[in-house]
Amino acid sequence: MPGLLSLDRIVKNLETHDNSTRIKKLMVYTCQSQWENELSILNQYAFSDLIQQLRASHFSLEQLRSRLYSFAETLNRQAEYLVVADTIIHQLEPLYDEPEELTQVVAVKSPPKASTKPPWIVLETASELEADSNILRIKKLMLYVSKNHWETDSQILEQLNLADLIQDLRESYPSIKKLSAALKQQVQTLNRQADYIVVAKTILKALQKLYTDDSEITSVKAVKAARSQPPAPPPTRFPPQANTGNRNTRKQAEKDNQKKFPNHQSPLVQDQEIRQSATQASTSQPCPYDPFDLRLNVMKYTTPLRAKLLIFSLLYHPIKKTQHDWLLMKAKPLDDLLFELFSTCATLEELEAKLYQTAQALEDADENTQAAGAIAQSMKRLYER
Amino acid sequence: MNVKELLQRYEAGETKFTGISLSGVNLFGADLIGIVFSGADLHGATLIFAYLSRANFRKANLVGTRLSGANLNQAWLSGVNLSNADLHGASLQSADLRSANLTLASLLDANLMDADLRGANLSGADLTGACLRGANLREEKRMYTAKLRGAILQKVDLQGADLRGADLLKVNLRGANLRETNLREADLRGANLSDANLSSAFLTEVNLMGANLRGAILKNVKLERAILSEADLTGVNLQGAVMPDVRLSKAQVSRGNLSFARLNRADLSRTNLREANLSESDLIEAYLARTNLMGANLSNANLTRAELSTTNLMGANLQGATMPDGRIHDTD
């Protein structure tokens, strides 16, 4: 079939393209209405599937163009991604020049549906955990952490889809640290703590690979108006660059979950519903995260090294005046520390509490408290709506 | 004089310690605001987290001095030898650093806002993550140019800074903030500007020969008469850029977006513009000798009096383009 030949050629062109990663990001974004920065997840998508999906859902090149452009325009790196869009259009052009019968063949493919299928990496993690002899306890604890519901019926537990549970956790906790804290907290409420600490560690170890960072993070800048395809993610607290997972899927998962456990009102779910409805009610967006402006503001009101010392101590371990710690701080740019701090603290209150607490516990409490105030003040607008 | 004596005398109100020798001493976190250390020898001393705002270090020896986290706001550091000094995370806001020797100094995450760096030598210095907004690095006379050769300027914040005519040969400015930065006539040959943000920067007559501009944001830049020969501009967005008389010979601009760009009299000889978008661009009298325009989009471009006799136009889209002889290209 000639169509397959050109498809192979396009796949090869895209794979060897200098901008290959960005091309895939934009294609995934257009197909799934979901921005993805994680390379490991992006790698699960095959170009051939993405191309066919795009071809099948856009009957003309013009339609494809306008759709790619409309998605690229929602990104903070709009200019780059408009170029990427052009590349995709250029590469996919031959598919629109194919004889009529091929168009029909491709068009037979079912239109892309809102993909709720977990990414491959999640499935892989699930199958790893399935092999664990403690699988029921693993599911129990996962459910308890994500839904605050303690299920003892082994039949129900067995029926629970582990991949869904993993995805729920991944989406509810933006960092491995947060997940770890949540697991620890829930385990402390159980009578068999020692047993469940082991289970928590197994979960953390398995889920670690879902939290790998991509240095180049582009994210959705503006939220598009309603589309025919899956709805756009609701505005989130995290402005561009924050890698928070897809809230949309989470919300859906929560809804599904409420169907599953109708009598149980999880405090966690409630809290998130409230937070989200509040977000939706408000039309203003939080201030965009500009790493340069943030750094500038912090530097204006405190010595940069003081800020680094405090944030490093908060995130990792209290800095001692040793050569080793000094070098560790040199290796961590202020930019990165500020961003990590921002992703760790969900609210301004949490940020302030952690900053002042850390400052008080360190030597030179006065100087560090001054720095805590300066950092909190500089980051305030990122939390405001 | 030892540290104890110095601190006692300072405490008692004495501020002038001209020509004092304090090499290698430890003054960690010392409060020495407004102290006069002019001509002092402080090489190898530890002044980490010291309070030194408005201190006078004129002509002092600060070679290899540890000043990380020190506050040197508005300090007088003109002509100071700070080579190899550690200024990691130091605050030097509005400091006078004219003609200071900062070669190989570490200025990682340092605050250099509004600092006067005219004539300073920053060759080989590490300025990664430093903030230089409002800093003055301007060339005054030929000899008064800030030297930044071989400096590491990754992710540096130079928004709005004046770098007119600065020597930035081969510097690493990867991911830097150069929004509205004045880089007129600057020497940026071989510089790494990948992923840098150059929106609205002034690049008139800049020399970017052989520079790497991949992934750079070039929105609304002014590039009149700039030299961009052999530069890597692959996939760059220069939509609507004003760049008459630009020299782009042998540059890599494949898949670049130059639509609506003003490229009159541009030298595009041997430029790789494969699959580039040049639709609606002005290319009047442009020189396109052996230019690769394979698969490029030149629809509605103005090529009046352009030299096209050796241009590779295979698969190029010339729909509606004004050809060198003034005729409109036929639609196929």
Structure description:
Chain A has helices spanning 2-15, 20-32, 39-42, 47-57, 61-72, 78-96, 100-108, 120-130, 135-147, 154-159, 162-172, 176-187, 193-207, 247-260, 267-281, 291-301, 304-315, 323-331, 334-344, 348-361, 365-383. Chain A has 385 residues and is an all-alpha fold. In chain A, helix 16 packs antiparallel against helix 21. The longest helix of chain A has 19 residues, at 78-96. The N and C termini of chain A lie far apart (55 Å). Mean pLDDT of chain A is 74; it is low at 100-116, 213-219 and 221-284. With 332 residues, chain B is low in regular secondary structure. Chain B has one helix at 3-11. The longest helix of chain B is centred in the first third of the chain and has 9 residues, at 3-11.
Descriptive tags:
heterodimer; A: 385 residues; mainly alpha; flat; B: 332 residues; little secondary structure; 1 helix; 3% helix; 0% strand
Quickly describe the structure.
Chain A has 21 helices and no strands. Chain A has helices spanning 2-15, 20-32, 39-42, 47-57, 61-72, 78-96, 100-108, 120-130, 135-147, 154-159, 162-172, 176-187, 193-207, 247-260, 267-281, 291-301, 304-315, 323-331, 334-344, 348-361, 365-383.
Q: How would you characterize the largest beta sheet of chain A? A: none
Helix content of chain A: 55-70%
Low-confidence stretches of chain A: 100-116, 213-219, 221-284
- Strand content of chain B is under 5%
List the helices and strands of chain A in order: HHHHHHHHHHHHHHHHHHHHH
Assign an overall shape of chain A. flat
Q: Biggest interface between protein chains, with counts per chain?
A: A-B, 30 and 39 residues
Mean model confidence by pLDDT of chain A = 74
| Rg estimate of chain A, integer Å | 23 Å
- Radius of gyration of chain B (CA) equals 25 Å
Q: How many angstroms separate the termini of chain A?
A: 55 Å
What is the succession of H and E elements of chain B?
H
The total of beta strands of chain B comes to 0
Helical/strand content category of chain B: little secondary structure
* Helix proportion of chain B: under 10%
Number of helices of chain B: 1
